Inverse folding.
């Protein structure tokens, strides 16, 4: 499904966050990506989405080099990305309306896309996600959990085969977060989705990711790269991510996993690994 081959990514200020980095995601796998602030988690997600391009190396999806966003990739952002002036129904229908404008050109819309069932698809996902009763309300009139469900519905109505999520539950309370985590896993199984979720939360990574990618590098300057041109971190800064550090976590998402000893053991393993990374950078 996804092949990252010898990828290097350097910010305009000269900070290299990935160098000769390779990573493979098979179709249908559920991955979590975790690491310290500024380590490149969101950058990696944007590279997979085709919103950023490598400095060197390449990203392939289903064997095809990724040079721009592909219509079968869904991206869900932390801040939901909803249009505040549009109703819940219209927000969910937005992607279908854009596809209707371009037609099945293979660039903006899959060549096999049919849009004559668009209204039924919107109504289905509103009901499936339990937000049909707020369909005519606006984002500011509904809860954070409902807004995130709208964002999920807007993505799934487009029938993606790859779902990318950037800390989608970070701003929600604990019970709402767990509810949406469970829902996401159910939908992944139903739709046979390949999923990659970026998170800074160890427990979330262990529950959501059958495989966990740990990124270790954290460039000087925090989560945002410095804006000066031609500047390099003092002393060269910490090394970029060169190796895909992967933790196998096959019990992820299984019923009762959060209460099992294996869950706590995996969380401790991940915590120790991230602690070692922090020590290396100190």
């Amino acid at each position: 499904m996804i092949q990252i081959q010898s990828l290097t990514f350097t910010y305009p200020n000269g900070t290299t966050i990935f160098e000769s980095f390779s990573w493979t995601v098979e179709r249908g796998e559920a991955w979590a990506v975790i690491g310290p602030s500024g380590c490149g988690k969101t950058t990696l997600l944007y590279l997979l989405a085709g919103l950023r391009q490598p400095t060197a190396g390449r990203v392939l999806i289903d064997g095809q080099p990724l040079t721009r966003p592909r219509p079968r990739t869904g991206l869900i952002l932390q801040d939901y990305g909803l249009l505040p002036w549009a109703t819940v129904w219209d927000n969910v229908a937005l992607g279908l309306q854009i596809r209707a404008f371009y037609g099945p050109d293979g660039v903006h819309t899959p060549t096999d896309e049919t849009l004559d069932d668009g209204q039924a698809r919107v109504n289905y996902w509103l009901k499936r996600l339990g937000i049909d009763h707020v369909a005519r309300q606006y984002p500011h009139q509904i809860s954070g959990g409902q807004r995130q469900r709208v964002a999920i519905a807007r993505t799934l109505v487009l029938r993606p085969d790859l779902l990318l999520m950037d800390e989608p539950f970070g701003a929600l309370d604990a019970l709402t977060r767990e509810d949406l985590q469970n829902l996401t896993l159910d939908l992944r199984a139903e739709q046979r989705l390949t999923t990659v979720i970026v998170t800074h939360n160890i427990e979330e990574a262990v529950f959501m990711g059958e495989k966990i990618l740990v990124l270790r590098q954290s460039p000087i300057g925090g989560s945002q790269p410095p804006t000066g041109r031609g500047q390099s971190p003092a002393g060269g800064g910490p090394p970029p991510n060169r190796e895909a550090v992967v933790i196998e976590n096959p019990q992820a998402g299984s019923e009762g996993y959060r209460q099992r000893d294996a869950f706590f053991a995996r969380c401790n393993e991940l915590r120790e690994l991230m602690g070692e990374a922090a020590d290396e950078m100190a």
Q: What stands out?
A: The chain has a mean pLDDT of 88. The longest strand covers residues 16-25. The CA atoms of residues 134 and 141 lie 9 Å apart. DSSP finds seven helices and ten strands in the chain.
